[in-house]
Design a protein that fits this description.
2 copies of one chain form a homodimer.
Chain A (H helix, E strand, L loop, with lengths): L1 H19 L1 H25 L6 H17 L4 H17 L9 H25 L8 H22 L14 H22 L4 H29 L14 H5 L2 H14 L2
Helix pairs in contact in A: 1-2, 2-3, 2-5, 3-4, 3-5, 4-5, 5-10, 6-7, 6-8, 6-10, 7-8, 8-10
């Protein structure tokens, strides 16, 4: 319980950063990418693979330099993606020392951790809608918290016992309802014109938050680790805490780009 | 020799398709992606992994539907990328039957084969510069052919004996010069205003063509196969023939977008 409270306190600086927005938020996205990538690659090391940490870090660094220099320039981001995948392949050129899995896991770390979490920066740099970053956090964390409590109170039928033994249908439904309610409340009080959009994102975001959580569980099971890290007391690493956020951020970003 | 001539004849329909351009060329890019992905995944199967063919094919199909519906829409392409990587991860949900490598190789096939070769379609749909597809082919194949002959005539010092034992420095230099000369000739006769750009792409394209060739060699060595396939007599599969093209196409596309 004490560690849970401590972990809760860790969220305070996060809220301040989200409130400040702009470069602060882009910096936070960068840090999530950096620490998340390290944790993700360490997980692969646990399987006996050796992802190219240096390629991953360099790719992350280049992406954020691009973003600072030319915000939300998608042609440059596609170029970055091409070069990152290519660099992961070039890593194989020292052919005796490296396994195919080393190259492949390097690339997947970039695509999953760096690219997914980068959508936080894309939202932060969206001129009119950067406020939507709140919806990302609300959908992610409301799903998490409401799923926890409704699973605890009403849960019996297991959702996917093989993948994540503790999850129940009651938790999934409660988490989804909680997300819709909290996103709706945010919409009602902060951006009433967009209430319907907030409710829709509350629903879709909750689904993707849970998919993100389960994906992270699947990765960790296969990597043979319980948590990605020990950074946050009682909550594991950055990737344990933000596994939903990095899945919800893209959903919110594309929703606000194509629908709102 | 007979098979080489046969293989040469196989290039004739390719030239017709490039001449026709437009939907024909986009269709050709789709086929390269489709057959290339199959060959690439088969290579992983040879290592005991089971990439999700269905996820890869579906991802390819969706990408080309997007391109036909909204050509060169980069936000949609980023969304496609997010969903494709995510779908590869979801493949793990049947957790008993699937290995982490199955998901990761699924994603890398999409990023490498489908995304790289898709730049052919991006070039085909570039209103003013779709002619640059010729430069992609000229740089790729001139590098290949000139490297072969100059390696044969002058080669002794090995380029990277561990990775690709037959390649020589003479071949690499001859291939690069051949690409510059052929791209320059194309520029001189067809688009004289752009001669300098053609020469630069001749140089840069030759470097990436050879990196593409070596990357494919590295993958094949690790997969334990000599060729990706047997589609083209004497030339292996689509991926053996187009390993340079799928690396040069992005280079040409980003060059023409940012520099020309």
């Amino acid at each position: 319980m004490k560690t849970r409270v401590l972990a809760g306190l860790c969220m305070v600086p996060l809220l301040v950063i989200v409130y400040l927005g702009g470069y602060w938020l882009i910096g936070a996205a960068f840090l999530i990418g950096l620490i998340g990538l390290k944790e993700f690659y360490e997980g692969f090391k646990n399987m006996g693979f050796k992802p190219a940490f240096i390629v991953g870090y360099l790719s992350l660094f280049v992406l954020y330099v691009i973003q600072l220099w030319a915000p939300n320039n998608f042609t440059l981001i596609l170029l970055w993606m091409f070069l990152s995948v290519m660099a992961s392949g070039l890593y194989l050129f020292k052919i005796e020392d490296r396994k195919l899995e080393d190259a492949v896991t390097t690339a997947i770390g970039i695509m999953y951790v760096v690219f997914f979490s980068f959508h936080i920066a894309l939202i932060a740099d969206s001129p009119d809608l950067s406020i939507m970053i709140w919806i990302v956090l609300i959908a992610s964390f409301a799903t998490d918290i409401f799923a926890y409590f409704s699973g605890y109170l009403f849960g019996n039928k297991k959702l996917c016992p093989n993948l994540s033994p503790k999850k129940t249908w009651a938790g999934a439904i409660g988490g989804t309802l909680g997300s819709i309610i909290c996103c709706g409340a945010f919409g009602y009080f902060v951006m009433p014109d967009m209430l319907v959009h907030c409710l829709v994102i509350g629903l879709v975001g909750a689904i993707f938050a849970q998919l993100g959580d389960l994906t992270a569980s699947a990765f960790k099971r296969k990597m043979g680790i319980k948590d990605y890290g020990k950074l946050i007391p009682g909550h594991g690493g950055i990737m344990d805490r933000f596994d939903s956020v990095i899945m919800v951020a893209p959903v919110v970003y594309y929703y606000m780009t194509f629908v709102m």
